[in-house]
Amino acid sequence: MRRHFDVLEEKRIGKVKDSDIFKKLVEFAKPYWKIFLFTVFLLLGTTVFELGMPYIMKSAIDRTLMPTARKLTREDELLRSIKLKYPGAFYEDMVVLYKLPRAAKKDLEAGKYLSKTSYFVLPLKKEFTSILKRFKLPYYEKGNLLFVEQHTIYKLPKKELRILRSEHYSLLVKFAFLYLLFLFLDFVFTFLQVYYLQYFGQLVMYDLRMAIFKKIMRLPISYFDKNPTGRIVTRATNDVNAINEMFSAVLVYTIKDFFLLTGILIVMFKLSPTLSWKIILFVPFIIALSFLFQKFARKAYRNVRRKLSKINAFTQESISQIDVVHVFYAMRKMIRRYREINHELYKANIEQMYVYAFFRPLMEMLRVVAVSAVVYFGGKGIFENYVTFGTFVAFLSYIDMFFAPIRDLAEKYNILQSSFAAGERILLLLDENEERRDGDLIPKQIKGKIDFENVWFSYDGERWVLKDITFHVDEGKTVAIVGPTGAGKTSTISLLARFYDHQKGEIKIDDTRIQDYEVGSLRKNTAFVFQDVFIFKGSVRKNIALWDEIDEKEIEEALKLTYAKEFIDRLPNGLDTELGERGITLSMGQRQLLSFARAIVRKPRILVLDEATSNIDTYTEHLIEKALSNLLSNRTSIVIAHRLSTIKNADKILVILDGTLKEEGTHEELLKKDGVYAKLYKIQFELAREA
Ligand code: DCP
Ligand code: MG
Fold first, then answer.
1. What is the distance between the alpha carbons of residues 440 and 450, in angstroms, rounded to a whole number?
2. Is 16 left (phi over 0), alpha (psi -120 to 50) or beta?
3. Which CATH superfamily is domain 439-525+634-691 in?
């Protein structure tokens, strides 16, 4: 079934290299590179802010909530060299830890230079010393600082404790404001980044859609025979969206993820390499699980989509063919069939649910295990004094930030795959040959002599639809083409319109090959009326003038000549009545009269008409007959005729049978000949009259 193309087409065709697709897409993005660069810059900003926030939290905890100093228990060469290097951190036998780099701290810890007890550090103030003295708590004054043992401080009553720790409190507030500032900036940058990224994506999509539509308009009609409308529409809609997704969801965020992951790794290793190594062990598991999940999820999703389009197609078909269903009394059978398809869809949905129900919690579990690992190893680190409490808290934040991009890796990979598939299809469409080999001859006035000389034509290059067709139409004459269905009548006139190019022989207008004319000028002098008349959405007037400016007088005249005036006058708003979608629907006969008006208003030198076979009420039939005789006078006409009157009045009748011209002559001549035409005439008209 053709309607399933959207699912099946997600796969790559594999005709175009990835690099070529990428190059083409970059070409479309190029005009807007400044916007793109700006979003990358904004992205870098958000990365910095997001990385910074847990770090601020860590510093706040370690600097304000926790005691920050230790007493030195012994002294030797190594300690002296450290003291020399970082004199600012040492106050006699006290050391302020946050003023030392991590390596030095580690050396002190390893060499057992530090006391077990920790000390809070306060500025040396009268207010503080008097409180400590009052409650007889031990403290040390060293330089301009005050050191108080961690545990003793909690012996103070609430009020005094608050005074003592006011220094820490105000620092904490400062950190809180810094955190809020980062949060706010992150918001602003993210907002701008999302905005500009979408802006960029929309601009690229706009251009891409323009290019695709331009291409579609210029493709030869034969392209549309081979490619169903739905598929071509998908190029300009879904496929373009898929490309946008690549830009907006994958490309840019991959850059961000890269920055973020690198940043987190650097910060984590700076904070605690031992803890970092243990966490990194989870990465391969998460990646593997994510790809496995995506594989199953994608399969299930495709299955659901396939069943969904199947049920849609069936429902649509059932409703649009409801009269056939009723005529054959097949309602029950249709319901039975629907039940089957419905069940398939139900099963597909349940399967999809299983995949999600299994993998989502599993991923979540892995995340919790990773967090637990941080708690376990981090806790151990706190006991063994190589991890501070702030680091521990920061790690909990970083671990989430670290796993999210890794978890989405497979999904992004999939988006990339389908964008590339869409890109390939767009590229193939854009590379399609336009194949209009126009001449540049622009005739002032076409007289209207037509010659077909040994014309051979095939749609597919395999089967000849027209074989060696030769005929001649004099200026101003009417030729009728008759023949059974599928004989090649419409094909013959399609060649004259240059919808297709014939392979052998020549078609000439006024003794000039049609290929030598500029197509536009040729079409201006020729009017084509086809079997089925398409009504565009819009007023009757618009439907007659189509894309041209035609003044009121000419429209009025055309309406009179084609006898369309009568029914149009009866429409609620006359010429301004809206037709098509949500407008008024015209009957077959009315459509035909309208299409005659469309043709005659252009005053063509050549009129080509593919008469509709549909049955029309006798009154309209009579109008159409009269309209036709007006239409055919004063110009060269080729009519694929089903009406006896048209055929009889023609100057010449061509009988086409299976792609070959069998007979040629006037009605009387051909009847006398008693050949194919005579037989056709008997079957079609005499029998019909008897009935
Ligand atoms: N054909 C094709 N591809 C197309 C159109 C037609 O392969 N895009 C084939 C179908 C027929 C043959 O070409 O076998 C001739 O088709 P025509 O449309 O020219 O046939 P008629 O116009 O004579 O038939 P009808 O009277 O039904 O309109
Ligand atoms: Mg036809």
1. 19
2. beta
3. P-loop containing nucleotide triphosphate hydrolases (3.40.50.300)
Say what the pLDDT of residue 6 is.
45
**Calpha distance 576→599 (Å, rounded):** 19
Q: Evaluate: CB of 487 within 6 angstroms of ligand 1.
A: yes
Q: Which helix (H) or strand (E) holds 142?
A: strand 139-142
Length of the chain: 691
Global confidence as pTM:
0.77
Q: CA nearest 423: which of 138, 3, 4, 26?
A: 26
Are the C-beta atoms of residues 557 and 613 closer than 8 Å to each other? no
Task: Say yes or no: CB of residue 494 within 6 Å of ligand 1.
Answer: no
Distance 166 CA to ligand 2 centre (A): 95
Find the 491 Cα to ligand 1 centroid distance in Å: 6
- Domains of the chain: which residue ranges? 9-57+176-430, 66-171, 439-525+634-691
Report which DSSP code applies to 448: -
Contact 499, 448 (CB under 8 A): no
Cα–Cα distances (Å) from 510 to 175, 194, 513, 600, in that order, read: 90, 62, 8, 21
User: Residue 290's pLDDT is what?
Assistant: 84
The closest ligand to the CA of 488 turns out to be: 1
Q: Which ligand is nearest to the CA of 494?
A: 1
DSSP code of residue 475 = T
Grouped pLDDT means (10 residues each) for the chain, 691 residues? 42 78 89 93 93 94 87 88 90 88 82 87 89 89 89 86 88 95 96 93 93 91 82 85 85 86 91 86 85 87 87 88 87 93 95 90 87 90 84 91 82 83 89 76 83 92 91 91 89 88 90 86 84 82 83 85 84 83 75 86 87 70 80 87 80 91 88 85 68 52
Q: Which CATH number fits domain 9-57+176-430: 3.90.1150.10, 1.20.1560.10, 3.50.80.10, 3.40.50.1970?
A: 1.20.1560.10
- Quote the pLDDT of residue 690: 56
Contacts of 230 (CB under 8 A, 6+ apart): 2, 3, 5
